[in-house]
Amino acid sequence: MENSVTHKSQGHRKRLRERFLDSGLSGFQDYEVIELLLTLATPRKDCKEAAKAVLKQFKTLQGVFEASSYELSKIDGIGPSNQLGLRLIKETAVRYLGSSLINQDPIKHSKDLINYLNMAIRDRTRECFVAVFLNAKNKVIASETLSTGTLTASSVYPREVVQSALDHKAAAVIFAHNHPSGDPTPSPEDISITRQLVFALKLMEITVHEHLVIGAGGHFSFAESGYIALFKQEFNEKHKVCEP
C-alpha cells in the first residue's frame, strides 16, 4: 500500500514539473506553486496537503514567502529541510531584481526600483533601511541594507551612512525603508532623519535624490512631496551656498 501511495505521489509531482517545464506557471493555482517548490527538497512524500495548509495559514503566496522558518515549521508536512524552495525563491527574486538595477538610472526607471524595494523590504516584520548608491551619471553602483530595526523604528546613524556612501564612491544616493504597519505615511522621525541625511551628505558633496517609505498600501516619496528640495534649500541658506 505504501509503495502504491509513493508511486502515485511520484507520478503527480512528475506531471506537476512537466506542466511547469512546458508552459511555466500558466494555469497553476497558488497552492500548486507552493507544492512544486516543496517537492524540490521533499523526497517521495506528497506535498499537496502541506501546500494547501501553508497557503490557508498565510493567505497569499507573498505571505508564505515572507513567513519565517519557525512559522513555516508549525505547518504539518513542512520542516527545516524542505523549506528550501520557499526560502530560495524569495531570495533569488530579490537578488535578481537588485542585480537588474545595476548600471540603470533609477530616476528614469523608477518602476524597476519600486519593484525591487517591494520585493526586498515591503513585507518585512521589522523596519529595514536601504541605500541605493549612484555614480555621477546617476547609474546604480550598489544597494545595501544599512539598518534593520524593531517593529516600529530602525536605527540610522548619519555618520555611518556617510561612511558607506564614501566607501562606494557614490555621487548620489536614494534611501528607502519599510513600514511594517503597511501605512507608508512618514513619521516625524522619518522626516527628521531624512533632513539629517540630506545635510550630512551635502557636506560631503553627495546628493540625496529620494527617500521612499514602502508599505503594503503603496509608497511615499520625499522628493515628490517637496521635502528633499526643502531640506537642500535649508542647507544652502544655513551654509550660504549658491546653487549653480
Spans with pLDDT under 50 lasting ≥5 residues? none
The tally of domains stands at 2
Any idea of the CATH topology of the largest domain? Answer: Cytidine Deaminase, domain 2
CATH C-level class of the largest domain: Alpha Beta
Beta-strand content bin: 5-15%
User: What is the CATH superfamily classification of the largest domain?
Assistant: Cytidine Deaminase, domain 2
Note the total helix count.
10
Strand order of the largest sheet: 2-1-3-4-5
Structural class: alpha+beta
Report on the biggest sheet: 5 strands, mixed
Report the count of strand segments. Answer: 5
State the end-to-end distance.
81 Å
The Rg value, from CA coordinates, equals: 22 Å
Instruction: Give the overall pLDDT as a whole number.
Output: 90
Shape: elongated
N-to-C SSE string, H for helix and E for strand: HHHHHHHEEHEHEEH
Task: Please bin the fraction of helical residues.
Answer: 40-55%
Structural features, described:
With 244 residues, this protein is an alpha+beta fold. It folds into two domains: 2-90, no CATH class; 104-239, Cytidine Deaminase, domain 2 (3-Layer(aba) Sandwich), CATH 3.40.140. It contains ten helices and five strands. It has a five-stranded mixed beta sheet. α2 crosses α3 (48-58), α6 runs antiparallel to α7 and α9 (188-203) crosses α10.
Question: Could you outline the blueprint of secondary structure elements for this entry?
Answer:
Blueprint lengths: L1 H22 L6 H10 L8 H11 L2 H6 L2 H5 L10 H18 L8 H13 L5 E7 L5 E9 L9 H10 L4 E7 L9 H16 L3 E9 L2 E4 L5 H13 L5
Parallel strand pairs: 3-4
Antiparallel strand pairs: 1-2, 1-3, 4-5
